[in-house]
């Protein structure tokens, strides 16, 4: 039977663990609140920009003066898929739902005889897709050292995509990502970005946190 001293030590240990856990919970809550505020602040800009691009694309139609990024190559033989997931796990179905959406799209394209190329943004999507489609992956964008994602990160990825398009590397580019609805709900989404102006298509909402 444990002695009185052992019981006191055990109680002190449990209390110390409770203090550490509470501190970690407070830090996590603060990080989650900042991430939520950033996502909600960016949403109006994203929605309006999408509407502007859609209107411009519709207005210019297939005119010869229109930029190729907006009108495309006129073919749909080669597809580039940009799959955006987190660098870490432990966030419910956040990563797996995006990867599943991309995987289903890949299967359909290959069944239709299309050529598929993949750029993985984030480690988790890369880990999932390389099991079946390692030969199709052109690059993995590593963001593990990035503390706060910003325009400079998106701009670097966009430049790689545009360069590949200008070199004739693909005809259609589709983005796969998770659309933020709330802290407990994100929607796996596909959006064609080249040619521009195609509305986003969303899958069913999935529960899980962001990473």
- Beta-strand content bin: 15-25%
**Helicity, as a percent range:** 40-55%
Can you tell me the CATH architecture of the largest domain? 3-Layer(aba) Sandwich
Q: What integer is the average pLDDT? A: 84
| Main beta sheet | 6 strands, mixed
Number of domains: 2
General shape: elongated
Number of strands: 6
Main sheet: strand order = 3-2-1-4-5-6
Class by helix and strand content? alpha/beta
CATH homologous superfamily heading of the largest domain: ATP synthase, F1 complex, gamma subunit
User: With helices defined by DSSP (H or I, 4 residues minimum), what is the helix count?
Assistant: 5
The H/E string reads HHEHEHEHEEE
- CATH C-level class of the largest domain is Alpha Beta
Q: How big is the Rg? A: 22 Å
CATH topology of the largest domain: Pyruvate Kinase, Chain: A, domain 1
Distance between the termini: 45 Å
Low-confidence segments, given as residue ranges, are 204-211
């Amino acid at each position: 039977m444990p002695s009185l001293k052992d019981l006191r030590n055990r109680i002190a240990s449990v209390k110390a663990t409770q203090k550490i856990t509470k501190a970690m919970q407070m830090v996590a809550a603060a990080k989650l609140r900042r991430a939520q505020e950033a996502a909600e602040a960016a949403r109006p800009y994203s929605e309006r920009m999408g509407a502007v691009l859609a209107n411009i694309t519709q207005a210019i139609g297939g005119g010869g003066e229109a930029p190729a990024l907006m009108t495309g190559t006129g073919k749909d033989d080669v597809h580039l898929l940009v799959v955006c997931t987190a660098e870490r796990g432990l966030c419910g179905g956040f990563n797996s739902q995006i990867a599943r959406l991309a995987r289903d799209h890949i299967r359909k394209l290959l069944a239709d005889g299309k050529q598929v190329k993949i750029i993985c943004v984030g480690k988790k999507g890369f880990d999932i897709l390389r099991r079946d489609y390692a030969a199709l992956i052109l690059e993995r964008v590593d963001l593990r050292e990035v503390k706060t994602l910003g325009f400079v990160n998106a701009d670097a990825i966009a430049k790689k995509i545009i360069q590949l398009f200008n070199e004739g590397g693909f005809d259609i580019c589709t983005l796969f990502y998770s659309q933020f609805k709330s802290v407990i709900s994100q929607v796996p989404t596909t959006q064609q970005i080249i040619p521009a102006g195609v509305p986003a298509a969303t899958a069913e909402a999935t529960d899980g946190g962001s990473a």
